[in-house]
Amino acid sequence: MRAQSSDIPIEHLLRELAPQVVGAVTRRFHDFAAAEDAVQEALLAAALQWPQEGVPDNPRGWLIQVAVRRMTDYLRSEEARRRRETAVAEEAHQLAEAVDAENDSDQDDTLTLLFMCCHPALTPPSAIALTLRAVGGLTTAEIAKAFLVPEATMAQRISRAKASIKASGVPFRLPTSEERAQRLRAVLHVLYLIFNEGYTSSGGPTLQRLELSREGIRLARSLHTLLPDDAEVAGLLALMLLTDARRAARADPDGELIPLTKQDRTLWDKTEIPEGIALLTTALSKGSIGVYQLQAAVAAVHDEAARAEDTDWPQILALYELLKRMSDNPMVMLNHAIAAAMVHGPSKGLELLRALDSDTRIASHHRLDAVRAHLLEMAGDHQAAITHYRLAAVRTTSIPERNYLMTQAARLSQGTTRPDPMIPRTDQ
Amino acid sequence: MKGAKGMKYILMMTGTKAQFDWYAKWSKQDLQANFAFMHAFNKELKDSGVFVAAEGLAFPDEAKVVRAGSHGEPITDGVFPESKEFLAGYWIIDVEGPEQAYKIAARASAAPGPGGKRGSMPIEVRQIMSGAPKEMP
Fold it and tell me: Hey, is the C-beta of A403 within 8 angstroms of any chain B C-beta?
């Protein structure tokens, strides 16, 4: 049995144990959807009881016992209906002990669970919700709050996700070696989306929804522990840390956005940056370069510059050249254009942007307008820059971004001579 | 959670298309004063325990009015006169009665305009149907 130190906050302990318990119960009952529900109930019971009665000596065993009891209740009622052959005859506590004893596979279980929740058959929003619940141990209410939707909506999204998994017949085991690379990419993508949603918050009034970023980092960290030799897993964790390091400097006390060039760099996190750089250095030395490592490298170049004007743009440009070759992502092309403008001047950047006008994935995205506005301003064409800042303001769904873009347009129309050196995020 | 105060109201901030375009052309100082006012106002609503929800809407440039066609298919209309009114955003508050809702609406209406002058933009105040159903005679 794993010894749990009693000073770990209960909430952390529960989140840590959640995927292990879901995995153990799923493996025993071969019913992921029902096992996951049962574990949620066990987690809720623990969250209520442990603060009052103290953490049990074997918290994992406690959770398994409660979940197995729920599971057997559920199966009994199912059997009464369907006369299905199940293990219901066994006494619940014996079962629980047996499940708890199969301890060695904890780690595999968490990994298997992650692969399952991020299955490509699911839409990204479903995969995100399911991952946060089954692997992250968050409650439906917490996930709903993070995504600013009613709890019933999120509950429905999660149960549909589970139904899709059931329908697709994915077995509860690690993917085969042939499909492994593709499945791992899907997992990394979901974790990246969780982090990013927390970091940039695609809608609504707040710029950052902290808890999602933290959860993204925590999940990436546990994946890195499970797969320490995978360079892209390390790259993703490094990217998250190197980006998150700037969190405190990204917004003013009212939540208004501060661009990279104007951030107070003394506010950047002094522990996340070296940790991210160390992770990245080790990952790059393995010689299997991927998109997350490259993005982390861009973030590292920004983080290493003591002042904005010290930024090593030629290196960032070189990194985006590589990224462009590895992925067909219009955001990469956008960032490549910015880097090219910083190295070769705005007209080079504007020329690269023209290629994106016919790309339907980004042609009417506010970031294209925002970047174009910035490069036009660099080039001295203030009228056109104002037009594009305003167009970007109309198109964004983030209030802090809209406020920022309107302010940029206003500053230019007032003919302020000192330009705001807005560098749109190049590391996203 | 039990609604502490009892009556819910929605405060709707509206403007014509022309007014949205005008707003986008305010000076930097005026915009910043307006943003700061909104942050403080929202915080005040939260601190005083009346805040339920608030949302800001995207600018109406891409707004569409949708009707069902003869086969139920969406027919969109998106070309509007400058005088058409659009919702810009709303607050939902939980208060003791209409007088308190009017007071809060007046505070929102007074958000500073160009030159820091106190505004008087119209705020539509409507009660939200949130009473519990009672047995009918």
Answer: yes
Residue A339 lies in a domain: yes
| Nearest CB to B36; choose among A254, A409, A416 | A254
pLDDT of residue A320: 97
> How close B69 comes to chain A (CA, Å)?
27
Q: Using an 8 Å Cβ cutoff, are A356 and A363 in contact?
A: yes
pLDDT at A132: 93
A365 interface with B at CB cutoff 8 Å: no
For residues A324, A330, A335 and A338, what is the CA-based torsion angle, rounded to 10 degrees? Answer: 110
In a domain, A67, yes or no: no
User: Which stretches within A169-256 are classed as H helix?
Assistant: 177-200, 210-226, 231-244
**Percentage of residues of chain B with pLDDT beyond 90:** 69
CATH code for the domain in which residue A353 is found = 1.25.40.10
> Which pTM does this prediction carry?
0.83
A394/B62 CB distance under 8 A: yes
Q: Domain segments of chain B: what residues? A: 7-127
Q: In what order do the strands lie in the sheet with B51-56?
A: B51-56, B85-95, B7-16, B123-127
Contacts of B62 in chain A (CB under 8 A): 394-395
Residues A239, A221 contacting (CB under 8 angstroms): no
Contacts of B35 in chain A (CB under 8 A): 254, 256, 403
- How many domains, chain A? 1
pLDDT digits (tens, 9 = 90+) for B45-62: 999 999 999 999 999 988
pLDDT average, residue stretch A162-184: 88
- Is A285 inside a domain boundary? no
In a domain, A349, yes or no: yes
Contact B59 A416 (CB under 8 A): no
Q: Would the ipTM clear 0.90, i.e. be above it?
A: no
Q: Calculate the average pLDDT of chain B.
A: 90
Which residues of chain A have a CB within 8 Å of the CB of B27?
410, 414
Residue A366 has a pLDDT of 93
Tell me the CA end-to-end span of chain A in Å, nearest whole number. Answer: 42
Q: What is the pLDDT of residues A71-94, one digit of tens each?
A: 999 888 877 776 544 555 555 666
Q: Which CATH number fits domain B7-127: 1.10.10.10, 3.40.109.10, 3.30.70.1060, 1.10.260.40?
A: 3.30.70.1060
